Amino acid sequence: MRKILSRRTLLRGSGGVLIGLPFLEEMRPRSARAADAGPPMRLITMFFGLGIAHEESIKKFSGPLEPYKPLESKMAFFTNLECKHAHDYGSGEPHFKVGDVTFVGDPQRVEYEASGPSLEQIVKKQLHPDGVPTLLGSKSIGMWFRTGSVSQYTRHWNMDGSPGERPERRPTRIFEQFFGGLMPSTPSGMEDPAAVAERHMRRSVLDSVIAEYKHYTGDASPLGADSKAKLSVHLDNIRNVEMRLAPVDAAVMDAVGQENKNCMPPTGVKDPGTNVNYELSQGGAGGSAPIIEWEDFAAAFQLQGELMALALRCDVVRFGSMLFVGSGDHVGFRGTYSALGGSVNFSQDLPGTSPHDYYFHNNKWDKCRLHAHLCNSNLASALLAMDDPNFLESNGKTLLDNTLVVLGTDYGGGGTTTGHNPDGIFHAIVGGNGHFKPGWYDKVYNIIDLYDTALKPYQLSSGMGQGRHKTYRHTPIEISELLA
After folding, report:
1. CATH code for 42-173+281-482?
2. Residue 481's pLDDT band (cuts 50, 70, 90)
3. How far apart are CA 450 and CA 476, in angstroms?
4. Which of 127, 132, 153, 361 has a CA positioned 20 to 30 A from the CA of residue 41?
5. Taking the model in full, what pTM does it have?
């Protein structure tokens, strides 16, 4: 009789390294009366700044939402949401007022402080009041740069409305937090620190768990053939991500078949982009727009998306937020971006400014639509990483199918309307455990209506609109046509 593995079984190696496993058939309980061993409830929010014009979003896949075409059967698109209350009750710059409302619902309590927690924190607290049984309770990651206001880049708000952690930009740090261990210090005078760093560059985190890997894939393994194959693919995926973080000779990075008892997790490895200053807060073009090749920016975010998918699949984390450009998008992109039969030359247009200043505020809506396409193409890449059919979960569905993703932006202004328009805002519900009907919804709803409805199938309450703000009230309207 095969051994029943714990859902929290990990490969454990030297240096405190832990590698999470995907859900395997052997993790199912023997008794049908045992607790449900199916995938856990997960919730991720995804955001991009500067919005998308309502007249562009209703073009469906003929406009900036074209990147989501492969996921059409798994997405519910909302193209006409409104949140006037952000402007009516909020304070500070327009983008920041709306930033405090996105995924929170109610208007600011005060400037730079939300009226309550964001969606993923609401669910985390209600489902796990004593803490999430994972390595990390939640994680915020994404590409952003300006730090003039926490409302510009924060989409994780704590239970008391205070801002949560800043999104982590460096893929290498994200990898180490999800899958790595601590780098042991080198005693003074024992070894050249540069040599230590070089050795870390050339070793895979998988080297340290090689003994356990051999056990679980060998003749004495408690796993069946299908689970052995699934484990091999899973670890190959981790190694492929590592090689993109530290591109060295593949033979050196080959963890399987090369046991190294002194291996330590990689540190100091190279992040995507040869000229990206990940530590930059602001500066560069116009004093507030760091200069970055858009390809480098996108490559880093796409790798972040793959890392988030890996972490969710390994049950390292269950709740989080992802950000592709903050509210206002004060980034001085460089290069030419082409889509939808047109192109935009960032290098030519933005020598001393950003898309926020030159496109959005100068009513260059033809270029704003390409900016929105760039944002959505990168968010779509993160969703596709979660929808990988090579990693079906215990119920035969993909990670994306078994995860609730709430994707949104801040403004619906643009085209023939004025910017900073709190009407016609785009959001989407993705995946959601089969609770939602895919399709297009252009009826006007308050943004709170969508957030509240998204939680109802899970028997959870958002608490939005019912007094979290000292004066604002809104009784949520159930979007019944969304519910399956």
Report:
1. 3.40.720
2. very high
3. 8
4. 153
5. 0.80
